[in-house]
Write a structure and sequence with these properties.
Blueprint lengths: L19 E6 L6 E6 L4 E6 L3 E6 H5 L5 E5 L5 H14 L10 H8 L7 H17 L1
Antiparallel strand pairs: 1-2, 1-5, 2-3, 3-4
Length: 133
């Protein structure tokens, strides 16, 4: 049974590792699922069914290869932890277009909150509808 790690543990672990936006293939469907590898070795990510979750790297990976998409330089770790704290406080629910895993992960590592995957599918659908006319 799934039991997320309490968020309080975010600040109670050694913080000497990477702070990075990571991804793995989605478990169902196309595309990738993104999360944030914390210096403690834990991963925080946003899911449609569980909201914001703090899990081990192995649990995030679900047996799939992990790709590091962006690594935050060490001098920005403290700012990113403050940003992540704010995101946890806000606790916005998952929304495919307005607040998905990509947007959450990008915000946490101080990047622009955007979703290239959603943008691709919106454009693909619009082109398909125009062609179908």
């Amino acid at each position: 049974m799934y039991q997320p790690t309490p968020f309080g543990m975010l600040l109670n672990r050694p913080m000497s590792g990477k702070f990075a936006r990571i991804s793995r293939p989605k478990l169902h469907g196309f595309g990738s699922h993104e999360g944030v590898l914390l210096p403690s070795g834990l991963v925080v990510h946003l899911t449609q069914d569980r909201g914001i979750c703090l899990v081990s790297l192995a649990e995030f990976a679900q047996g799939h290869k992990i790709t590091i998409l962006f690594e935050l330089p060490a001098e920005f770790h403290a700012s990113a932890m403050r940003r992540l704290s704010a995101l946890l406080q806000e606790n916005k629910p998952y929304d495919l277009v307005l607040n998905n895993c990509e947007m959450f992960a990008r915000q946490a590592v101080l990047q622009k909150p955007e979703s290239p995957q959603v943008l691709f599918w919106l454009i693909f659908t619009a082109v398909g509808l125009l062609i179908a006319r």
